[in-house]
Write a structure and sequence with these properties.
There is one protein chain. The chain is mainly α. The chain is 75% helix and 0% strand. It contains 21 helices and no strands. Helix 1 (2-28) crosses helix 15 (358-369), helix 13 packs antiparallel against helix 18 and helix 18 (434-449) runs antiparallel to helix 21. The radius of gyration is 23 Å and the shape is globular.
Length: 509
Amino acid sequence: MARGHALALALLSVVVVPVAAVAWRGMSDEGGVAAVSVWPVVRFTLLQALVSSALATLLSIPVARAIARRRFAGRGLLVTLLGAPFLLPTVVAVLGMVAVFGRTGVMNQTLLALGLPPLSVYGGHGVILVHVFLNLPLALRMLLHGWQAIPADRVRLAQSLGFGPAEVARHLERPMLREVVPGVALVIAVLCLTSFAAALMLGGGPAATTIELAIYQALRFDFDLARASALAVLQLLVTAGAAVLALMVVRPSGLGLGLGPESGLPAPGGWRRLVDMAAIGLAALFLVGPVLAVALNGMSGLASLPPQVLPAALRSIAVALVSALVSSVIALGLALGAAARRDPFVEFAATLPLATSGLVLGTGLFLLVQPVVPPMTVALPVTVLVNTALTVPLMFRILLPEMQALQADYGRLADSLQLVGWQRLRWLVLPRLARPLGFGAGIAAALSMGDLGVITLFAGDRQATLPLVIQQLAGAYRIEAALAASLVLACLSFGLYAMCEAGGRRAGA
């Protein structure tokens, strides 16, 4: 318990101290928030989050329904492929969308061949498009979990009563959707509120600037600490309010990680079968198309990668591995403390980072280190620190249910054998939690590998990670080089995830 409290206090300090620095600077500087013309920025931030979450949620409903009630060869593989964009680095997703919807992309080439005007992927609609692409897989998984949670006895009762598709939808599916959809939409809205890379690469104009992008511009271009601090306070209020609302609404079991038990929903034929197949096909085309575009377009540039890609990739791998290791240790310690007995303090500390964002923490740390040392000299340690803080809540939520089950099943036996400390961890906890530890570490490594957030505030050329190099290449219109580097980043991200997840499976076998 003492160790759990110590880890909780350490995590709290990582979040609270930078936030306090931001709040102090933002409220003490002359003018503060009142001097900043923030309404257009706030309006676009909220609007793109609401529209993105609404589109991702609504579009995922017919796809999840079709997958839940249809059986076909390759169904499991399809679900895995549809979930891949959720782990895809945002910079890679942006370039994938540019490769498909950009000026020379497949979509615009097709439109021009048909004599229609081309589309532009830049601006607010481009930011929304990328957010839908990234979050549609998450919405699919959460809604699939909702369909699979429909009790099998209710399905059998509906079949015995001769319910048709309309009755099944009315009595089984719509009640589930009323319970699940608000939580899905809120989770995605929170993610979109703190998204940075999409707005940086596709937005940036007066009508397409988010609060986080405005923070970056104030620090990186204007070095206006007062404006950056005021915007960071505003971003903190927005994300904290959204996170609290999401935690109140979302069901604990909402983040289903796989397909689970099947409920045996009836699969009507006729035109409904065609609609289901069309929904699955269009979703697969939308989600897999940009990934294939990055792969196909990036391969041609692999032989002539810019020289800065290799050192940046090595820095990204180091940051990802260290972040995943530290977040795993902290999350495991917090889960141990929370499972021993219900401890609101530990659970609060493990959840608090959800109420902030990487740019807010980065701004606070920038304010703290800037008077002491040049910020670029601590760019990589700060990036590790922020990535760790932001991935601990995810790992904690993955480990806590497993730890509670372990404590209920083996806690008394371990106590009677006086199995404590390192021996208990080595012989009981680690073997039993190897699988969720590997899975969580893989997600943490992949997310850290592709992060383009706090590093943009601190890094110079010698500290740049691979996502930052890709953003710089794309900003210089070196799209072929950026796509080749994006292919490297995507392979490394999925490789780290697969390595950690496979290691956990082997250790837990």
